[in-house]
Target: Multiple sugar transport system permease protein
Amino acid sequence: MTSTVAPTAAAPAPSGKSTGRSGKPRAAKLVRMLPLSPAIGLMLVFLAGPILYCLYAAFTNMALTGTGAANVQFVGLDNFRKAFSSGAFTNAIWLTLVFTLISAIIGQNTLGLGLALLMRRSTKVVRNFVGTAVIGAWVLPEVVAAYLLSAFFNDDGTLNVMLRAVGLPGQDWLYGAPIIAVSLANIWRGTAFSMLVYSAALSEIPKEIEESAEMDGASGGRRLLFVTVPMISRAIMTNLMLITLQTLSVFGLIFAMTRGGPGTKSQTLPLYMYEQAFSFSQIGYGTAIALVMLAIGAIFSLIYLRGLNSEAAA
Model:
C-alpha cells in the first residue's frame, strides 16, 4: 500500500509591506515629527547653540578688548589652570558653598518645612497671614527685595534698631558679615518655594497614620522624625535639588546688596564670573568659570538623584 503525502502549502510571497509596528514607512514617521520641528529648531538655536559656543569659548583667549578680541586663539586648559591657581577663584567657590549651605540646604529647606507644618495645623486666619507674608516676599522683584534688605541690614537699619532696643550691640552687617546678610536675605526671599512643596507633600499623608502613631504614645517630635519625614522623603530630596541649583546661580540679589564686597567677602562664583567676563573683558576665562559652576551643579544633582533612586528602591 502506498501512502500519499499532501503537499505543504507554499509560503506566501512577501508583499513588500510589513504589518508590524516597526515596519511603518519612514515617511509616516517624518510626517508625525513635523509638528515638533519648530520646537526642535528653537531648542537647537537657543539652547544647544549657546552651550556649544560656551564650550568653545572656554578653551580660547576670547575677550571683549585687546588681543583676545582681534585674534581668538585656542589655549587648551589654560583658563582652568588659571582659575584653580587663583586665590580669588578658590575664595569664590568657598563662599558659594557656604551661601548654598546656609541659605538653601539649612535655611529655606528647614524653614519651609516648619512653615508647612504650621499651616497644616493652624487656623485659616493664620494660614492666610503666613501664606500672604511668605509668598509676598517670593514674588517681589529681586532688585526691590535687595533694596529692602539692604535697608534692613544697614548700620542704621531695622535689625540694629531692634538689637539695640533690647541691649544688644548692633553692627553694619553688610560690611562686617556680608555673606551672612545675603544668606539671610535669600532665605527670606526663597522660603516660599519650599513651603509650597512641603505643603503639597504633607497633604498626601493619610491622617489615619499620624492618628495611629499618636494613639500609640508617640510625641510630636517622634511623629515628625519617624512618620512624617520618611513619608515625604522624596519631596525633601526633590526640593533640596531644586533650591540648591537655584541658589548656586543667585546673582542679582547679592550684586544689588553688596556687589560681592566689601572686597571679596561676598563674591560668589556668579559674581566672580561676571567680574572676569564683563568688568575685565575676559570672556574665555569667565566662560571657563561658568563651566565649573555647571560641574558643581551637576555634582549636587547626582547626589540628590541617587538619594531619590534609593528611596524608590526602598
Summary: The chain has one domain: 79-313. The CA atoms of residues 205 and 228 lie 8 Å apart. The first helix runs from residue 26 to 33.
